[in-house]
Amino acid sequence: MRMNGHFKDEEPAISLDVGPREIEFLVDTGFTGGLMIPEVLANDLDLTYVGAGEFQSATGQPIPVSTYSMEINWLGRRMRIPVVTSTEVREPLLGGDALRDCCLTIDYALRTVLIAGSSR
Amino acid sequence: MVREQIDPSDFTRIPWFREVIKTLPEEIRVCGEHGEVVHIEESDFSSNPGSSAPFGEAHWVGCSKEAIHRVKLAVNKTLKEIDRAKQTYQLELARRLEPNHHGAIVAIELGTNDYFVGDDELDASEKARDAGHEGTLFFLRVGSPYSHRLMTPRR
Known about the structure:
Low-confidence stretches of chain A: none
Largest sheet of chain A: 8 strands, mixed
CATH architecture of chain A: Beta Barrel
Number of strands of chain A: 11
Radius of gyration of chain A: 14 Å
Number of strands of chain B: 7
Radius of gyration of chain B: 18 Å
Structural class of chain A: mainly beta
Strand order of the largest sheet of chain B: 1-3-2
Shape of chain A: globular
Order of helices and strands of chain B: EHHEEHEEHEE
Distance between the termini of chain B: 33 Å
CATH topology of chain A: Cathepsin D, subunit A, domain 1
Helix content of chain B: 25-40%
CATH superfamily of chain A: Acid Proteases
Low-confidence stretches of chain B: none
Strand content of chain A: over 45%
Strand content of chain B: 15-25%
Largest sheet of chain B: 3 strands, antiparallel
Distance between the termini of chain A: 14 Å
Strand order of the largest sheet of chain A: 2-3-4-9-5-8-7-6
Shape of chain B: globular
Helix content of chain A: under 10%
Oligomer: heterodimer
Number of helices of chain B: 4
Mean pLDDT of chain B: 90
């Protein structure tokens, strides 16, 4: 199973079905978490609170976050994954934890983004 | 509405205040008499006084002093418990967990400081719930003072 992303401006992105609608996430391998959603986009999602955490930003500042669980369609399966929300972020991000068992291919020349299950 | 000024020395803690308010029971964060949620408002964005925040003033806002006081007490209690959870990790759990669980997520229950290790936040929290722990969890990544890093500067 595979999922096709796209380029949003100059950055790789992918749209995911998060229940009531789709959200476009930037694919950001510099983010070690799974999914991050700005709080203003999270209000109507079916989220279950799991706990609190703290991220380290690129500038070294701590960012407090709330962690939730949420069901999404991921590589053809319905699965529950950790999602963090914060008032301190502006863009939805998909990070390394979401890609843990995947192969991510980004072709900057062809401007294609592909997420597939790993062959390992 | 009643407004209560937040001291500028607490401006950097406002994101934490907001995160904690969201987790409080409705009977604490919402005034039972008027139905208003106690919240925080920043103002004076034009005259950034050079502090670490892009605003000059911030206030707790609620329908009564009592409602604000109730929320502030609960927020401060939770933040103290989070500080204690961080201390527990540094003083006790780091040497216990880092040799064999580096990179895993540890969920520390606020108040008891009991802890559970998992592959991610859901895995660690399920272990806590399965063991009968129902308190609020604070997550850290074993080997780090944070749960995750965000290395790409974002607007």
